Structures are given as structure tokens and as C-alpha cells.
Amino acid sequence: MSGQDSYEHNLLARASLDHCVKCTICETQCPVAAVTALFPGPKYVGPQAERYRQGQSVDRSLDYCSSCGTCTLVCPQGVKIAELNSVARAAMKKDHMPLRDRLISRTTLMGAAMRPVAPLANAALACRPLRVLAEAAVGVHRDAAMPTAQRQTFTAWQAKHQPPDGAGRRGTLVYFHGCAGNYFEVETSIKSVELLEHLGYGVLVPKQGCCGLPLQSNGLFDTARAWVRRLVAQLDKAPQDLVIVSSTTSCSGMLKHEAREILGVEDAALRAVGARTRDLCEFLLAEAERGELPLDFAPLDLTVPYHAPCQLRGHGLGTPAVQLLRLIPGLTVVESGAVCCGIAGTYGLKKEKYAIAQAVGQPLFDKVKEVAGDLAVCDSETCRWQIEKACGVRAVHPVWLLHKAYGLS
Amino acid sequence: MATALVIGAGLAGLAAAIRLAQAGWQTTLASKGLGGLPLSAGTVDVLGYAPALLGDPTGRVARPFETAAALAAHDPSHPYAAIGADRAEAAVGWLRDLLPELLTGDLKTNITLPTAVGALRPTCLVQPAMAAGDLAQNRSLAIVGPSQLKDFSPELCAANLARQTWQGRPLLATAYRIDLPARPDEADSPALAYARSLDQTAYQRRFAEAVKRRLKDEEAVGLPAVLGLRDRQAWLEVQESVGRPVFEIPLPPPSVPGLRLNDALTAAAQTAGVRLVLGSSVIGFAAAGRRLKSVTLRQAGRDQAWAADAFVYAPGGFESGALSLDAAGRLEERVFQLPLRGAGGSRLGGQETAADLGRLINADYWAEQRLFAAGVAVDQAMRPLDEGEAVFDNLHIAGGLLAGAVRWSEKSGEGIAVGSAAAAADAITGRR
Ligand SMILES: Cc1cc2nc3c(=O)[nH]c(=O)nc-3n(C[C@H](O)[C@H](O)[C@H](O)COP(=O)(O)OP(=O)(O)OC[C@H]3O[C@@H](n4cnc5c(N)ncnc54)[C@H](O)[C@@H]3O)c2cc1C
Ligand code: SF4
Ligand code: SF4
User: Fold this and answer.
1) Does the beta-carbon distance from A316 to B277 stay under 8 Å?
2) Nearest-CA residue of chain B relative to A274?
3) How much is the pTM?
């Protein structure tokens, strides 16, 4: 790894700590500190402790930070609190990385291993004795939400897919599906492509691997850097003047800012890809605002709770899905108003953090149960799995409702 | 539909956005972070002190809007001159009626409340949980706090109160402590942890029982302002169990009453249909002549031009980084480089000399600090002025960026924020 990638050289986040005026605003909004006395809060483990860190950690309570990013979002002084925490946690875990954290951070591996034996894998994940064993052996909580393996990957669908006539008349887009979008949330990826083609776009899907986000949030920075660089090169195989649209909001956040701000990857190709990347709802809402989105939606007589995931809020765009879904006649969208669902990528899977993650998500779960019939809406896949598991409802990406309202399903 | 972009999520920005959305404008509120409300006492200060005007050494203001009108007549560069005391009063009344569960007061008279250090603080609107602390009722007070809450010393508060008189009569105050951590086995519990525990019925009872056991024959009980964050009835539950009037005394940040106000206004903005875009800073703009076309938002990964028909700029002052003074004496407003004025309308900005700075910054900490009156001068539509001309026709300023008042000394910041927000929104929507 080059010197500029190293912890010591990640000056972007470190330089911001002197802007902290100790106003405590981040402390008041941290969803983890709100539910457990084990975590003293973002100011404490962030700008305060960072002053004493010289590449090593002063306090292990930092490990309870879920990296949800809320603190950075609310800080009025621009302190990169969550980024500081992520970097410091990677340094802290460097010499004793749990096996579990190495395993759960490899979504592609998990997806690839589970797919050929999908029914079996799903049955195993639903089997309590096996989960109890897994908890003891690797530390993944027995009740934690797990994805459902699919028999067919998105790429397999895509290989056989025939775009409808007229796809391409409005130009061409690159679609970034992410690993969950290839192995687990296959339906969401298919609907996204069908919707974009219905709107008249040609959709290119270059071969793509993992963005490295789960590795990053588990502190495995070196591999994460290599993976995000590989992904940038893969996306760049498509013409480099095209907009990249993604239905996986956490992975597009990785390309837009986290790889730079947390991993310290500074290169022109990453910057350019990040600047071309749009969250699907961000892209569609911008189309709507330019008067380019057809509004021939069939009414959907539904009331749904909508949760804006932390990762999406980190894009600094607000909640485009809400504005977008409100264009569908008959559909009532109730914003959850909750900070975080608790899962924060892989945080809520871990046996020592499971109870905290559930407590973090409780206000959201209450809201979903209050509003939902049997459907909830959320842009991020891991949050959807968490909501489904906790609330017993089906949780879908906003594109499912748009797809239906356009009469595509 | 006409579109408005409000910049800043403080009291001024939230109030402007709600008012615009209520008038049917498609409104977006963009902010780099939360505003100052979670740091505020959760009350609404309109005008607390005007020593120069009143010629009385305490300078304490009894009738806030009446005195604001006199202040505006006396000093035309004061923000209340452009806003107008009447419009400010109507706006503060509007805010009170928007949040009836959280704000109370008759608008005519200031209420004087004890602070956490036992000083007396005049303010215009208070939260219902604080209302029984009104010293005009002049009773004997018990000041009670948990030993585990390090941000509140009942002894300090009570002893300072007991040294003072109010309207000619001595104040009676006695300190008591209870032994009750916010969470089991904590030696040092943060205020927010108390507030969250006091959202639970069982803890409300335990807390109230512990307080009640300590009391003698005092008539009212002052407690640290931690009586529930989400449960707006928590203080009533405590009061009922204690069996006499209780009142909250605001603490240093994080301020629970300030958070309540912030949460309620954010929810009101959402209900009104305001689109909230948090975590993106405004870093530049594009204009054609006197028409502001768009501002540039720094979002994850790229900078994005955001167009709107009208803009409200409510970024606060020095405290939020909207104004800066660097080591070379360069004083500036950082996004639009708007012309700056100081106290009495004096011209500021550009390179201040050492002599200028000497006049602006007083070596005596407690003396008047004229630097903090720096800001933007505006017309009645809250448009920034340069030599008496609006800089842009569709840019309106609200809140802490306005020139002419040292808001925290006067205790005028919240009235200025709400009054200017309403004036800006109404100028945009054409409402009178
Ligand atoms: C220490 C202190 C004590 C005070 N005490 C009192 C008091 O007792 N009584 C009183 O009345 N007033 C007091 N004030 C004054 C207080 O600032 C005002 O009362 C009022 O809260 C100002 O509100 P505001 O909405 O104008 O600004 P703020 O609450 O500061 O909000 C500014 C908002 O703008 C955002 N922002 C800034 N720049 C940008 C940008 N470029 N792009 C996007 N967003 C941006 C910030 O993130 C923030 O959300 C005090 C101030 C300080 C600093
Ligand atoms: S919100 Fe920002 S400035 Fe305030 S305490 Fe947290 S890091 Fe510091
Ligand atoms: S990233 Fe989330 S969990 Fe971590 S300190 Fe910030 S707000 Fe708390």
C-alpha cells in the first residue's frame, strides 16, 4: 500500500477535529449512546479521544460506535466524527481482528457460497440449533437478520435479458448493483433496470465486484482499498461520460465519499466515478424536477412507512424517495422520523452488539408497526432485512412501488 | 409551484421554512448541521436587557415588545428596526401557537426565571415545565438535584438566589440533593441520560418520590431541566407525585428543553411539507444581476447547483462559522461576501486594521464586545443592503447574521430570529 493510504496520512478527518467547539450536538443525536451506557458518545470517542491517539487507541469503548454517520451529519462545525471513529477503530482492531468480522465482511463470498444451495442455505439460516452453534463458534447472534439467498443472480438474469424497444432513446446509463443487489436483492436490481428501460434509457451493466464497504466498516482497510479501486476500474470499463445509477445506497455512498473520507483513497478515477454516481431515487427525482419523468402512474391505494437509512442521509441529499413516491396518486408515505434501524451494515449481527442494535431500532420498529399494513419502504438492503425481521413485514426498495405504479408489475 | 430554499437549520431557518411551506411554497431547507436550538435554554428571548436605553443599571426589560419598539426608534441599525416590533410580536405569537404544548407566555410581559447558577433571567416565552419558576410569584423555593448530575449544583443555585431580592423582597431558597443515578450504578450521569430515564413512568415515580422525601415547607420546587425528552407530560407526572408546583431550571448544553424545541420544530417542518437536506453546506452561488439563480451545495461526491425562486439565508453568525475573522484581521461573510456593518451601522469588512480591531474587541471580557454586533444590514423585506440598495432581490436574511445587536447580552436572539424569519418569508410570499 502506498504511504498516502495509511492511517497517519488520513489527514482529512484528523484536521477537522480542531473545529470541535464541544457543543455536544453530536452526543444528543447518536443512536447508540441513547440506548447504552457502554458507549460514551461521538464527541468523547471522536474529537476528544483523537487528540491522544498516535495510531493506537486510548479507549476500547470506541468499538461500540456503529459507524451510522449521524454525528457527522448533525455537527454544525463540519467535524468528521464518524470518519475519525472508523479510522481509529481500524487501528485498534489491527492486530486482533475477529474471524467473524473477516467472514461477515465478504458479501460476495457469502452470496456466491449460498446461491447454488439457496434453499439449503436459507433453511440453515432459519434453523435455530444451527444458529445457536454459529453464535458460539463465530459470534453472529442467533436472532440477527440474515439475507435470503436467491437461486438466480442478477447478472444471470441480465445475461438473458432482452431490453424492450425504445430503451436507449433517451441515452445510456451505467447500473451499479452492488453485491447484495447481485446475490440477495435480485428483484430490486431487476426492477431498477426494467424501470430505467421503461423510461427510455439503455442500461449498461459492467462486470462489478464488491465496493469494500463491509470490509471498511469492520476495519479491514487494506483489502477494502484494493476492492474499491478494483470496482472503480470495472465501472470505468463503460464509457466514462455516462451517469452511474445505483439502487444500493450504502455502496454508492462508498464511491461518493466514504472511500475518500474514511479509507483515504485519493485518486482522480475514484473522484470522477463518485461524482458521476447517483442514487436511483436521487436520479429519478432530478428527472421529475426537470419535468422529464412521466407521471402516468396508476394509483396505489396504500399507506406505507418510509425509513431514510443513515447511509442515504450521509449523501447529503435529503430524502428523494419521499418526494418521488408522493408523486404516485393514492399512496401515502409516512416518514419514520427514526435515526437508525440499528443494523448499521454488519454491526447488529454481532452477538455482543445485537441487543444494542435492537434497542437502537426500537423507535423505528414501533413506527413501522403503527403505520404498516404488511409493507415498509427503505432504500438500504441491510436495513430492510432488519425491519423485516423485527416487524414481520415485507420491506422493499422504493423502486418496487414505482415499478408497480408504472404498470410494470 | 414556486420554490424556496432556506439555508440553516437553527430557529430562524426552521421558522422561515415552516412559514413558507404553510403559504404553499415548495420549500427545501438545506443545512450543514443542526442549528443552535439544542444549546439554547428552550425559551424564547425577545429583549431581556437594554441598559443604554432604559438608563437603569440592571437594564432589565419588563415589557419586551414595547421596549423593542423604543430600541428600534433609538437605534435604527438594530435588527428590530427593520423587522418592526409589531411584526416581531405577531411572529413570536405565531410560534407560540404553532407549539402550544411547548411554549407559553402572554407576549406582553417578560417572565423572570432562575438560572442554574442562581442568576435571574428575563425571557418572553417559557416551556410549561418552567412556568412555576416565575419569580413574580415570589415563593419560597426548594432547589433539588441528584448528586450524580454534575452539571447542576443545587447549593450554588440556591445560595445565589438567597443573596438576591426580587421586587423588594428577599428570595428564599434552600438546596437539597437526592441520591439517584440516571442509570444503575452510575457515579456521573449526563443530563440527557436523566431525560431519557424520565421518559419512563416507573423512573418518573422514583425520581419524584426521592424529591418529595427531601422537602420541608417550600412552596415550589426547582429541578434541573431533565424532566423528559419525548414525554411532554413527564414534568406533570413528577409534579403530581411531588404534590406541589415544580419547575425546570435549564442547564448548560446539551439542553433538554432546547432539544424539545428543536425536535418539535423539525417535526412541524416535516408536517408542513418542508424537504430537509441535512449534511450539505452552501459554498457558493450563481447570479444574474440582482437575481440569485442558484446556490452551490456541497454534497457527498460532488457540488450541486440548487436553483430556487427565492432564498432565505439563515446561517447564524460567528458561532456557526457564517462570519469569520482571520488572524490577519479579515472579517467576512463566507458564502455571498455580503457587505458587513457593525454596531450603529458602522462599516466593517475587508481588512480591519489593528486599531479597528481594538475598537471591536475589548480586552475586558465582561465589557461590551462590539465585534459581535457585526453582520448584514437589511431592508424591511430582510434583503441585504449595500449603500441602501438591495444586493439581490430574491435573497433574504434571517437570524444571527443580522447586524446591530449583541444578541446574547441583550437576550434578543430568539425574537430577532423568529421575527426576521417571518418577515423574510412574508416578503417572499407577499403576505402582510
Ligand atoms: C454562546 C451563545 C449564547 C447565546 N445565548 C443567547 C441567549 O441567551 N438568548 C438569545 O436570545 N440568544 C442567544 N444567543 C444567540 C443565538 O445565536 C440566537 O438566539 C439564535 O439561536 C440564532 O439562531 P439562528 O437560526 O440565526 O442561527 P443558528 O442556530 O446558529 O443556526 C445556523 C444554521 O445554519 C447552518 N449553516 C451555517 N452556515 C451554513 C452554510 N454555509 N451552508 C449550510 N448551512 C449553514 C448551521 O449548520 C446551522 O444549522 C447565543 C449565542 C451563543 C453563541
Ligand atoms: S457536534 Fe461537532 S462541534 Fe459539537 S461536540 Fe460534536 S464534534 Fe464537536
Ligand atoms: S457514527 Fe453513529 S454510532 Fe458512531 S458515534 Fe456517530 S452517531 Fe454514534
Assistant:
1) yes
2) B301
3) 0.94
